[in-house]
Design brief:
Elements lengths: L9 E5 L7 H8 L4 E3 L2 H14 L5 E6 L2 E2 L2 E4 L2 E6 L2 E4 L7 H12 E7 L8 H13 L2 E5 L3 E3 L5 E3 L5 E4 L2
Parallel strand pairs: 1-2, 1-3, 3-8, 8-9
Antiparallel strand pairs: 4-5, 5-6, 6-7, 9-12, 10-11
Helix pairs in contact: 2-3
């Protein structure tokens, strides 16, 4: 299924070297994307965009690998642990809190372009927790997400789009 290319006001693309071609093609397709090596990099990009945007909220897209109820952000992940969203990117467990604080004031909607983030029983619950905690609309996909070398975006045919609101 063809999906729209990321068109958010701020697009953060993983700078991780752990890649199967998806991130290389995504970076080539969106040269204006902000390289993010960690969740902290995404937080910094959100704060910088908010300031540059005259303290007006905007839309965000995060492009990296994923799995059910987990979105990678560079070398870090936001995921579900014991039914609660958690952050497992050293050195600070407060970075999830900082991510949600930054989103609450700056981000109106966030789309995760990672495979299967919204799949399974935990995927939609994960998105709902982020939507509520960050006061933003959250969108992700249940199937594989891919950008080819021509900049065309797709999700697996059996995938669906899942949206959650605060």
């Amino acid at each position: 299924m063809r999906i729209a290319a990321p068109s958010a006001d701020l697009i953060c693309i993983s700078s991780s070297a752990a890649d199967n071609g998806f991130l290389v093609d995504a970076r080539a397709a969106i040269p204006a994307g902000v390289a993010a090596g960690s969740v902290n990099d995404v937080i910094t990009a959100i704060n910088n965009k908010y300031k540059a945007n005259g303290n007006k909220p905007f839309s965000l897209a995060v492009i990296d690998h994923g799995r059910s109820a987990l979105q990678s952000m560079g070398d870090g992940n936001i995921t579900v642990v014991g039914g609660y969203i958690a952050y497992n990117d050293p050195p600070s467990a407060n970075d999830l809190k900082n991510f949600l604080v930054a989103c609450t004031r700056a981000v109106t909607s966030c789309t995760f372009y990672g495979c299967n983030v919204a799949s399974g029983a935990d995927g939609p619950a994960f998105l709902q927790e982020l939507a509520t905690g960050g006061a933003m609309q959250m969108t992700a996909y249940t199937g594989s997400v891919y950008c080819n070398s021509h900049g065309k975006w797709s999700a697996s045919d059996n995938g669906n789009t899942v949206r959650k609101t605060p």
